[in-house]
Write a structure and sequence with these properties.
Length: 222
């Protein structure tokens, strides 16, 4: 009798997973490419839902209005992330999707995606995985806002940004944030002053080091 040892196949890296998903979409469903620049709106709250959007490059934020009428940053997104998932159930988008840098998004009609998934079931798996990651991200963000002190919130945000870059095979020892401190505070439920003080304490503790004073670009030391 011949014995064989089966080695489990290694899971693809984050960068490879994202590349595979983008190739899967490009090969199986019609895509409308759109180049965006800082401040451009991909879609707006209340707009009828028709398309999902996949980020091919760039950085994006989701913005909503609070009950007091203030803009609230509810999430940030990177290459490979899907935008517009909240529109599936409601029939309209629940937030504004805004570019934070020059980038490219792929618009995919939802009905065409479902039709293509009949021929290529892996598309439906990719959609479900995107939904699952969105739920996990929302849960972790909620726990952070409810339980962590100010410095830990800011440090966690920086770690989240660095991890997102690492999963995409990008440089993480020096990071450029594409958000102002006011936007970061808005996202983390903190004041601008609290964010600035947290950054200063992290810098004094040699956790981070700013490349230039007042710059959004910094170096991670730990």
């Amino acid at each position: 009798m011949t014995e064989a040892i089966c080695h489990p196949k290694a899971a693809p890296s984050g960068a490879q997973r994202i590349s595979n998903a983008l190739q899967l979409l490009e090969s199986n469903v019609a895509i409308q490419r759109r180049v965006v620049r800082t401040g451009d709106t991909v879609y707006q709250v209340g707009q009828p839902f028709a398309c999902l959007y996949v980020i091919n490059s760039g950085f994006f934020k989701m913005v909503n209005l609070s009950s007091e009428g203030r803009e609230q940053v509810v999430s940030v997104h990177f290459k490979g992330d899907w935008l517009g998932l909240d529109g599936i159930a409601a029939g309209h988008y629940g937030c504004d999707a805004i570019a934070m840098d020059t980038g490219e998004v792929w618009a995919i009609r939802y009905d065409a995606l479902l039709q293509a998934a009949l021929r290529a079931p892996a598309l439906l798996t990719a959609l479900h995985e995107a939904m699952s990651r969105e739920l996990t991200r929302d849960h972790e963000s909620f726990l952070s806002l409810c339980t962590l002190p100010a410095d830990a919130r800011v440090a966690g945000f920086l770690r989240y940004w660095a991890d997102a870059l690492a999963q995409r095979g990008l440089r993480t020892d020096q990071i450029t944030l594409h958000m102002t401190r006011a936007e970061i505070g808005n996202y983390l439920g903190m004041t601008l002053e609290s964010v600035s003080r947290a950054f200063s304490r992290l810098a004094r503790g040699d956790v981070i080091r700013f490349i230039e004073k007042g710059s959004p670009r910094f170096q991670c030391n730990k």
